[in-house]
Amino acid sequence: MTSVESLLAGSGRGVQTATLDDGTEVVVKSGEPSSIAAEAAGLRWLAEPGAVAVPEVLGTGEGRMVTTRVPSGRADAGAAERFGRELAALHGAGAPAFGSRPPGGPVHAWIGEARMVNETGDDWPSWYAEHRVLPYARQARDQGTFSADDVALVERACASFPDVAAPAEAPARLHGDLWTGNVLWDGDRAWVIDPAAHGGHHETDLAMLALFGAPQLETVLAAYDEAAPLADGWRDRVGLHQLFPLLVHTVLFGGGYGARALAICEHLARST
User: Fold this and answer.
1) Sorted alphabetically, which PANTHER family does this protein's record hold (predicted)?
2) Is the whole-model pTM more than 0.90?
């Protein structure tokens, strides 16, 4: 008998697909319990406003989650326009604070395979520096990827954040790991998976979409801007918001990600 309960009781790790007895196609994901708990809470929180399409969480267990399977298709202009509007609506649903976790989610969460702490703050520039930039720069130093001088450069860049950030705004409800691999298309709309959801700045999700070249990106951005006009100079701030994912990738993979992050920091440090 293939049921949600039987799948949650199964063994193994990673991502698998299955079909329930009623014909529903599902995805079974297994992993570190706090990572699964954070992802499940994030999916439910993103689904709450009814804005973006997300897989339905059918059940969770200790380190195991069953969700509906996303239909497969391709990205076209109509789906991209719809996604831009839906993403604007998701962000507009808001969050209690910068760094706030989804209800029921852990404070000590994850972004991909890296740990992410959801401590809250009221001021975006200082919160972003303290909880989304400096922890990963210092971890890269501890791993030997960054030098002490590299971390000092990141710290100087962080000092510029109050001057270069967008005008103050209320916290947005973020997907938090919105790179192109976490956006799936079914021909009619986009679906988002694998969130690192938290309260943040809406430009962070948009910058992460651009980081690895999402399909139909300019169409998505134009539709977003029409639904929720972006603040002047937002394109100039893309690098600022990409620091977070680039430093996470530096910690996980090293290589050129650290160089890209440091180049952005050089630019930011010169702006003060």
Assistant:
1) FRUCTOSAMINE 3 KINASE-RELATED PROTEIN, PROTEIN-RIBULOSAMINE 3-KINASE
2) yes
